[in-house]
Each structure stands twice: as structure tokens, then as C-alpha cells.
Amino acid sequence: MPAGAHRIVPYRVLPTDCKLDKPFVDSGKFVPTTATAKFYNVDTGLAFSEDDREKPDGLYKTVFGPVVCHAGLVYGASNHNLRLALTRLTKVREPEIVGLHNNLEDNQKLFFKEDKHLKTFLQGFTEFVTLRFSQDVQDFEKELMDYAQQPHAKRKARIRALKRIISEGTLFDPAWTRKAKGGVKRREWGVKYPRMVNDMGIEGSLFCGFIFDKLKKYLAEYYSHSKCEEQFVKTPDLNVLTTVFQKLVSPEKRMYFPYFSDDSCASIRCSDGVFMANVDISCCDGSNGPAVFEAMRSVVSGVPNIKRFIDGAINQASVKLVITSHGNQQDKLT
User: Fold this and answer.
1) Which of 251, 282, 284, 328 has the highest CB neighbour number within 10 Å of its CB?
2) What does the alpha-carbon distance between residue 89 and residue 27 come to, in Å, rounded to a whole number?
3) CA 28 to CA 171: how far, in whole Å?
4) Residues 144 and 233 occupy one common structural domain
């Protein structure tokens, strides 16, 4: 389908290169190994040679339902898009105010250390998590197997991987992930800057999955006894969302704050009615500093076996990243 054609007629997926160009500066946190440094430039990023362009998808598709349009253009698997995706992952946007990001990290550390409301919340949630895990998790192998058997495109591979981990006796050795393979996120509409997906292998994808699933469940259940009500929305279930919108329109407390990841809203009771707002956190990944991970550790501090897995999951963020050229499979940046 050529660009600009009618959106609801059958179309083909056409791989394209990103035309966007944004100012990024080196974060100082990505350091290539000496052996592969020739494929990386601090100023321009990834330095693989050009490659052949990916061919269009030969099958025609249609779109129906709530969203009945598709531009047909997606970011292709090319070294050009790979360079932009790696830039987005390893560099930072050039701030209008020098040192602004460092100030954010410093303020975040201070907030986690001194804010009395956050301390009260974390203390109460930690006690709640400790109690619930002691009630819910009795058999790690069963929990992991149940999680691996959930409907998923790689369900069979997950089950095989877990059985291998159990047979090798490395179930309680949180080191399943040795490296991550980076690549352009596929089939993403060619609108925003390309994103990189880091594949940690089947074992790595299993790691801590059922634990975080339970933590999200506990967070959704936890009720903080304060003048404001915050609610973690774990599921898009119709009944849950109906309750969320009812409380947004008429909050039961001084303030109601439902959230999921970086998507959230707020309703505040005022003298002349209810003030409602959408709270969009831009570039939220940049705020995931050390203080956030330390808070996660503290939440499971009362359950040693769980904490070992959380420590391992956090360590996954520092494993070796391997980027392979689309033009020459022998060219790799580590």
C-alpha cells in the first residue's frame, strides 16, 4: 500500500527508515568492550556499515474493530533504525537546563529518604507483602511452572527452559541471564523514534515473572489509610475500570489517584467541585533511578527467598548487551 492510501482498504506492511532526528548526548553509562569499540562512536552512535533494506510483507491485511486504520509503514530491521534505537536506549535527551537529570536523581534519593508519607506507605506495603507471600507462595517450582504454562506464544519453549533449569539445580541461583540481544522493536508504526527490545532469552523472560505478577496483584489490593486514595490498576477488566471512573467523577476522599505505570489520572475535591486531570509522565524511564530499585528491594526485605529473585532481576539491567549488524552477522557490538 503506498503511503497516503485509504486506511481501511487491504494493505501491506512496508518497512521504512525513521526520518526523525532528535538531539541526544552521551550518558556515560554505555561503554563498549575494547574488541568491539570500532562499531561505536560516542558522538554518532552505532557504526555498522549500511545493509540491504528489508522487503515489504507479501501478505495483505485488513483492520476492523475499534481502530480501523493503519498507515502500513513500520520500522524495518535496518542498521539505520538500529542505530537510532540504540541511541534512544543508551543516550539522553539534551536538557534545556544543564545538570537537570542529576538534580532529578538527587531529589529522588532525598524524597525516598526523608518523605514521611512515602515511608509510611512503604512500611505498610512491606508488611502486607510479607504476609501475603507467606500465605500464597509455598512451592517455588509449582509457582514457576504455573506461570510458564500460561497462554503465550512461547509457552512450549518456556516449559522446556524451566524444566532444564530445575534439572540443572539452578532454580535458586538467580543468574539465568548472561547477556541480552538488542534489536529494533518490530511491527511498530513508523511515527515515533525507534525503540530497542532487549531479548534476555527464554530463561530470562521467566525470571521473576510470577513474583512481579503477585506484587502487582498485592499493590492493587493494598489500601493505604490516608486522606488520599491511590489505586494501582492491574487489569483493564470492565468492572475495575467502571469503579475507577466512578471514583474519578466522585472521589470518596480528598483526592483519588489511579495509576498504571506512567499512565495516571487525578481527581481532587475542591470548594467549588471536583478538579480532574490526566497526569502524563513524559520520558518516565529516565526517572527509574537507583532509589526506585532500592525501594523495590525494601518491599520484599521480609521474604529472603523472594528478595534473592528481586536482586537477580535488578542485576539483569547490567548484563552484557549484544547488538548484531543486519548487514553482516559477524559484526557485533558488545
Assistant:
1) 251
2) 10
3) 35
4) yes
- 122, 215 in Cβ contact below 8 A? no
Q: Looking at the structure, do residues 80 and 149 belong to the same domain, yes or no?
A: no
- Backbone dihedral angles phi then psi of residue 293, each to the nearest 5 degrees: -70, -35
Full domain range(s) for residue 71: 1-94+179-196
Do 216 and 282 fall into the same domain?
Answer: yes
Q: Which three cell numbers stand for residue 248?
A: 474519578
Kindly provide the residue ranges of all beta strands, DSSP E only, lying in the chain, ordered along the sequence: 14-16, 24-26, 40-41, 45-46, 73-75, 91-93, 179-184, 196-199, 228-232, 255-260, 263-270, 273-280, 320-324, 332-333
In this structure, is residue 239 part of a structural domain? yes
3-state class (DSSP) for residue 300: coil
Would you give per-residue pLDDT tens digits along the chain (334 residues)? 344 344 556 666 678 888 887 778 887 778 888 888 898 888 888 888 877 666 666 556 665 544 445 556 778 888 888 888 888 888 877 777 777 777 888 888 899 889 998 898 899 999 999 999 989 888 877 888 888 888 888 888 888 888 887 777 666 565 555 678 888 887 666 677 888 888 877 777 777 788 888 999 999 999 877 788 989 999 889 999 999 999 999 999 999 999 987 789 999 999 999 999 998 776 676 677 788 888 989 999 999 888 888 888 888 777 888 888 888 888 888 8
3-state DSSP assignment of residue 274: strand
Are residue 132 and residue 237 in the same domain, yes or no? yes
The whole model's pTM is what? Answer: 0.77
Q: Which three cell numbers stand for residue 126?
A: 512491606
